[in-house]
Amino acid sequence: MYENCDIGRVIKEHFPFVTDVQIGMFERLPSLYEEWNERINVVSRKDIENIFERHILHSLAIAKVCRFKPMAEILDVGTGGGLPGIPLAILFPESKFTLVDSVGKKIRVVNEIVEALGLKNVVAYQTRVEAVDMRFDFILSRAVTAMPEFIGWVKGKVSPLNFHDLDNGILYLKGGDLREEFEPLMKGKNKKIRIKLYNIYDFFPSEFFESKMVVHVKL
After folding, report:
1. Residue 32 has pLDDT above 90, yes or no
2. CATH classification of 7-218, choosing from 3.40.50.150, 2.60.120.1440, 3.10.290.10, 3.40.50.10320?
């Protein structure tokens, strides 16, 4: 449904608050990723032709679950080439985004794209998340590992001070049947953890999103 679509029209339809400047940035993103992907592989070759639907719009599904407020601190773990962090940073220019990845060449791509777009609300570091010594309102990722392990990585990095409609925590992009993965999180010492699943197909009705979720975890 979103292949070869009018990017500006789709963005405006789903996020009517965007400005023309923001739309221009979104329209530039596919060509920037295509250009950098020829040098440094940050997006699978089969996906690069569908970069808008499979990566940019997929990232923006998080914004359908939570509209980040000004001065919100957001951490993107295992960001790769800047996904979901860069599209969300375009959408929420008054929020602050920290993007981390352990692979230096991927952070180079992030910094180059951030500079090309003139984004002022993004910083990116080559580091492991365990070394990040800050607290954030929300911690994002796109299925870098199983959720129990991810929670171990980011435990203690969520701010206790909540000022969004959604409770502070993890916003995770994940697909497939998640019951087996999440079952251990609902037992024993983990009973305080609260998990809610949002079907991305409800936001973006395309076949690609049928089994994909935004997972909100309140720690």
Report:
1. yes
2. 3.40.50.150
